[in-house]
# Entry
Amino acid sequence: MPTIKIKELEGDIEVPEGETILQGAMAHGITFGFVCGGNAACGTCLVKVLEGLESLGKRNPKEDFLAKAMMLEPEFRLGCQTVVSNSPLVISIVSLGRTQRT
Ligand code: FES
# Structure
């Protein structure tokens, strides 16, 4: 089963091939942006792929539409739309890296 290392957290998670990054993270109790319910409409599930980008499929049309609207570089992917292959990934969850306003 492929592993995903999340830069902001300790340890790796195992995610079954064919699940999205967001599904895999949530199965391990890791919650991050999910405002639109996984419909590629909000961008809150944004991740930056640090290693393994070449193993991922191309953006699907819904992800591609939002990526263009947000002017995202190729290494930025929507966690709710990006399906894990059989290769390991290293990612950064964008929302976990942001500082909170006080
Ligand atoms: S959860 Fe809204 S774009 Fe992924």
Q: What stands out?
A: Strands lie at 3-6, 12-14, 46-51, 76-78, 89-93. DSSP finds three helices and five strands in the chain. Helices lie at 21-27, 61-69, 94-97. The chain has one domain: 3-96.
